[in-house]
Specification:
With about 350 residues, the protein is α/β, with parallel strands linked by helices. It folds into two domains: about 1-225, Thiolase/Chalcone synthase (Peroxisomal Thiolase, Chain A, domain 1, 3-Layer(aba) Sandwich), CATH 3.40.47; about 235-350, Thiolase/Chalcone synthase (Peroxisomal Thiolase, Chain A, domain 1), CATH 3.40.47.10. The chain is built from twelve helices and 15 strands. The chain has helices at about 25-35, 75-90, 90-100, 115-130, 145-155, 170-180, 200-205, 250-260, 265-270, 280-290, 300-305, 315-325, and strands at about 1-5, 10-20, 40-45, 50-55, 105-110, 160-165, 190-195, 215, 215-225, 235-240, 245, 270-275, 300, 335-340, 345-350. Strands 1, 10, 11, 12, 13, 14 and 15 form a seven-stranded mixed beta sheet that branches. A five-stranded mixed beta sheet has the order 2-9-7-5-6, sandwiched between helices. It is globular, with a radius of gyration of 20 Å.
């Protein structure tokens, strides 16, 4: 289990988000705290009689400066989500420091499905007429395209990884970033989870349950080391080991073992906020309900409000968790993230307020 060194903790210096609630972390947090589910759309595809429920990201309220960059001229939605959330979390001052080579930035982008929209479009063109399939689309089908676009926009030449997994993989991305920071491979690190809606993914989710509402967007945390312990920013207290699903370890057992790794006392629960992955689906929620059924503290269920964004959902949980600890007088002693992935692993994390509070 990753535990923060009290002499050199990992701190969360910035947050960013794109979601069905809008193009900022503030809109995501406000919508989540309102506990009011956003309206959804029903989309159908020729040949499929079962409409898919989705919550897409709305158009931005105002023009975005980064959208004018040449690298974003022909990209799919997921690259725009990654860029917007990443730049918001980083902030303009740090972004300029990266461009001037004054800040060594690491980038970790995490997907469950990744660049599906242009992948489907490209292969449809190949099937329709291979001679006319646009080669311009092909670069946007690779998983690391969004991370590459973000690095180019920031003129970032630092370490840059793309991770693939189920929704819980975002917490593995935080572990990786923490390793980079503690081994001084970068000065700061962006960790971004993102997804985009596509008919293939929408229909694939229906194979598990008809209750799920698929959504899209991105969530980002910007991390740094606080070597002198004076930073007035929320900290990552711990990230549990991933509990992998196997023949002997199903989702129910893995989720219970994940929670047990946190070793929470009853008094801690009373003063903590749990951000879980429940989404009003009896099938998908069963394991997490069993693991946290006796939880005595407060909780937020982001998927119930915004929908299931797969690789972005746990990133949203982390953004909301960090936001609850940013004030000078935080309401909670800790915020907990429960990530019970669909088909691979269960992981949990604990964030705590700044030392100075």
């Amino acid at each position: 289990m990753l535990s923060a060194d009290t002499n050199a903790p990992i701190v969360i210096k910035g947050i960013g988000a794109v979601s069905p609630a809008g193009w900022s972390a503030n809109t995501l947090v406000a919508q989540t705290l309102s506990d009011q589910p956003l309206p959804h759309e029903e989309r159908t595809r020729e040949g499929n009689n079962h409409p898919a429920k989705v919550r897409p990201v709305p158009k931005p309220d105002a023009p975005q400066d980064f959208a004018r960059h040449p690298r974003l001229r022909r990209v799919s939605a997921i690259s725009r989500f990654v860029t917007a959330a990443g730049i918001e979390a980083l902030g303009q001052r740090r972004a300029e420091a990266v461009r001037q080579n004054k800040l060594r930035l690491g980038i970790v982008v995490v997907f469950a499905t990744g660049c599906v929209a242009y992948t489907g479009r490209f292969f449809q063109e190949v099937l329709d007429n291979p001679k006319l399939a646009s080669p311009i689309l092909f670069p946007e089908t690779v998983f690391n395209a969004p991370a590459s676009h973000l690095a180019a926009i920031l003129s970032c030449t630092g370490i840059n990884y793309t991770l693939l997994g189920d929704a819980a993989e975002y917490l593995s991305g935080l572990r990786l970033a923490s390793d980079w920071l503690t081994t001084h491979q970068c000065d700061g690190c962006l960790v971004i989870g993102a997804e985009e809606i596509d008919w293939l993914i929408s229909e694939a989710v229906q194979l598990f349950t008809r209750d799920a509402i698929l959504s899209e967007g991105a969530g980002a945390l910007y991390l740094e080391m606080d070597e002198d312990g004076t930073s007035n920013a929320p900290r990552i207290s711990c990230i549990t080991d991933p509990v992998l699903y196997t023949h002997d370890m199903d989702r129910n057992l893995a989720a219970k073992k994940m929670r047990a790794q946190l070793e929470l006392a009853a008094e801690v629960e009373k003063h903590s906020l749990l951000l879980d992955g429940l989404q009003s689906s009896k099938t998908l929620d069963k394991a997490e309900n069993n693991a946290w059924g006796n939880w005595s503290g407060q909780r937020l269920s982001i998927r119930k409000t915004l929908g299931d964004a797969l690789g972005a959902s746990v990133a949203w949980q982390c953004v909301a968790a960090a936001a609850q600890l940013k004030s000078n007088t935080p309401q909670y002693q800790s915020t907990l993230i429960s990530a019970v992935g669909l088909n691979q692993q269960s992981i949990a994390a604990k964030f705590i307020p700044p030392i100075s509070t």
